[in-house]
User: Which sequence fits this backbone?
């Protein structure tokens, strides 16, 4: 198990994440875990009470969590969005762009390689869920 | 054509560094082959039967002479002196060493080229009409839209781990030279009754083991909404495309299983939200890109006639030269299908020669076609004879465009680790059987396509005659199909009966051609006759 990587200023959320079914059945949980085949939109009515959404990546090839993250950020979720599971160093820059700000990789991440990967591109071509300015906006002021 | 600005160049340069880093981590053992595989694939690097294969992107098939020369340089320096132009309008090199791949990318970057997303479960190189900007039947040049899509799809953060690969084609004419309905998304620019130009969007087409023709998902899409709408199409696919079985993971299966109407409904619902996010660049960005695709500075008052006294030259003109929208100009298709050649292969010297011709006579532009040929899109008719002589001297003047020897073939078992049967020797045998050009010309347009396995890289489903190589109890066996088309009248070929060995399938093709010659009416192509009379007479001739 790799260490938890966080790109947030606030304190780490300690309450264990409950399953989506459990969350929808009880009203007071503040952390939920979303499996890769579960619909992130089910959380939208409850975003205000959530401090943490953990999105599962059972295999690094399973890219559904990238869409789940964007959907939650586009709906205004500002809590911790954590990618958990088979998360690889070269995926983290893309995950950051989709709105993930915490990572719980199963295997340890080479932090030097991660730092290189995160600093690799000064510019991006498309608008996403992060604050980066797409190239087309830079070109046209 | 498009030129990089400092942003495009910085991104491609950074990519070289990123891939070098990834290769180093693989070579040092820090990364497993399983983890490295999707990363190298997203950079077009495959492990084949004998070596690594590197697929270099030629966005929408368009290049200038400097880029084409670089392809020759790479063939000489890092491969065995040749390259293979592909049905995705790209080029691939078959004898690459892993540790040299980053150096190749560094060389490509110096001429605004790369291998980004030429493989992997991501949005692949955008393909287009090889006659774009030159064709008389064009409503609008599709390439600026293809470039906009190229930029949008490059390192797309949400769509780099899709269920499966994703191919997009854009055309701007009624005649479909890019097989849009056989793509994951096909886009066709057209003019509506109000005189506005917009897109018709098809989704869910493809070949492979389950061929499907894409249905229309949106009949009219305003141009300015393109990226947000395509983003919505992809998001629905990324969320709901099947991931339990890689053979059912393409978008065509999703669209087929839930139905085109339901897929369209989900996309529209997604788009209602996505279009509010400001993902579409302003019109000024499209105009900036479109500026690069302005027509070349044509000479006015050029002679529009060609001296037809040389019979060999005339033969080539009639077969390989197409109408250009500008009087005095023509479009040349250089056949990479010489008798006994390998379809789509070109030597470094041939690549250099084609680049020189483009530079000297072709407004510095070349195109790669999905039929694995090369196009000089803008040449003066008065230069045609000089161009032909130069091509003739390099073995590049075979006058067989769209004839039976202009075969699309995948690399097959000679190179590919997925193949069940060889494609190249079969293509050569068929071309050899019809070596007599007069006979080929008498037969007329006949698109023959060969795949060495059910993944259908040789487009056999879309062949007027399609051949699929399979493994039958350890023997190579070839299934014959008739009636496919990748043009605007898209259709899928149907298997005609039991398969053949290599010589048997060549005989069967010949019998089919002779049957057609006996049955055709004035002006009918093989495909037309087959559609009119059906399979029975062909089956009788072949199996009877």
Assistant:
């Amino acid at each position: 198990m790799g260490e938890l990587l966080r790109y947030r200023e606030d304190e780490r959320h300690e309450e264990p994440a409950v399953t989506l079914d459990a969350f929808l059945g009880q009203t007071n949980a503040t952390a939920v875990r979303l499996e890769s085949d579960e619909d992130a939109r089910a959380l939208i009515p409850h975003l205000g009470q959530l401090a943490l959404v953990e999105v599962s990546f059972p295999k690094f090839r399973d890219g559904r969590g990238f869409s789940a993250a964007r959907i939650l950020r586009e709906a205004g979720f500002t809590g911790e969005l954590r990618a958990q599971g088979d998360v690889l160093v070269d995926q983290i820059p893309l995950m950051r762009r989709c709105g993930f700000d915490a990572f719980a990789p199963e295997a340890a991440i080479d932090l030097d390689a991660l730092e290189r990967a995160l600093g690799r591109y000064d510019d991006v071509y498309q608008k996403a869920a992060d604050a980066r300015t797409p190239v087309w906006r830079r070109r046209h002021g | 054509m498009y030129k990089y600005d400092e942003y495009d160049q910085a991104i491609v340069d950074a990519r070289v560094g990123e891939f070098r880093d990834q290769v180093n981590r693989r070579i040092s053992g820090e990364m497993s082959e399983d983890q490295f595989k999707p990363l190298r694939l997203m950079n077009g690097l495959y492990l084949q039967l004998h070596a690594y294969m590197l697929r270099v992107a030629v966005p929408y098939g368009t290049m200038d002479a400097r880029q084409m020369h670089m392809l020759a340089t790479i063939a000489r320096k890092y491969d065995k002196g040749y390259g293979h132009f592909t049905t995705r309008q790209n080029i691939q090199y078959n004898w690459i060493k892993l540790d040299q791949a980053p150096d190749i990318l560094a060389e490509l970057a110096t001429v605004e080229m790369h291998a980004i997303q030429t493989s992997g479960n991501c949005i692949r190189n955008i393909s287009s009409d090889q006659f774009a900007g030159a064709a008389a039947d064009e409503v609008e040049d599709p390439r600026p839209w293809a470039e906009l899509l190229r930029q949008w799809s490059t390192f797309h953060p949400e769509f780099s781990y899709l269920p499966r690969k994703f191919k997009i084609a854009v055309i701007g004419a009624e005649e479909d030279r890019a097989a849009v309905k056989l793509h994951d998304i096909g886009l066709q620019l057209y003019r509506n009754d109000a005189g506005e130009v917009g897109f018709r969007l098809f989704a869910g087409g493809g070949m492979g083991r389950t061929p499907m023709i894409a249905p229309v998902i949106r009949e009219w899409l305003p141009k300015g909404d393109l990226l947000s709408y395509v983003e919505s199409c992809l998001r629905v696919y990324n969320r709901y495309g099947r991931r339990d079985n890689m053979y059912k993971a393409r978008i065509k299966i999703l669209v087929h299983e839930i139905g085109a109407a339901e897929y369209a409904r989900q996309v529209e619902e997604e788009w209602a939200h996505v279009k509010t996010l400001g993902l579409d660049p302003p019109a000024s960005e499209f105009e900036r890109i479109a500026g690069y695709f302005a027509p070349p500075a044509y000479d006015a008052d050029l002679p529009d006639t060609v001296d037809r006294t040389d019979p060999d030259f005339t033969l080539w003109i009639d077969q390989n030269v197409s109408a250009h929208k500008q009087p005095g100009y023509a479009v040349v298709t250089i056949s990479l299908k010489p008798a006994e050649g390998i379809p789509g292969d070109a030597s470094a010297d041939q690549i250099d020669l084609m680049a020189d011709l483009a530079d000297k006579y072709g407004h510095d532009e070349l195109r790669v076609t999905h039929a694995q040929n090369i196009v000089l899109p803008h040449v003066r008719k008065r230069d045609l004879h000089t161009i032909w002589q130069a091509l003739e001297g390099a073995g590049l003047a075979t006058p067989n465009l769209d004839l039976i020897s202009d075969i699309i073939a995948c690399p097959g078992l000679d190179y590919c680790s997925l193949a069940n049967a060889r494609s190249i020797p079969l293509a050569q045998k068929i071309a050899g059987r019809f070596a007599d050009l007069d006979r080929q010309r008498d037969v007329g347009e006949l698109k023959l396509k060969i795949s060495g396995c059910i993944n259908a890289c040789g487009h056999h489903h879309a062949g007027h005659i399609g051949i699929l190589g399979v493994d039958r109890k350890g023997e190579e066996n070839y299934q014959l199909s008739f009636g496919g088309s990748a043009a605007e009248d898209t259709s899928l070929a149907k298997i005609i009966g039991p398969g053949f060995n290599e010589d048997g399938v060549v005989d069967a093709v010949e019998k089919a051609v002779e049957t057609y010659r006996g049955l055709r009416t004035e002006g009918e192509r093989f495909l037309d006759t087959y559609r009119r009379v059906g399979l029975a007479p062909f089956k009788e001739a072949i199996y009877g």
Observations:
- Chain A has a mean pLDDT of 95.
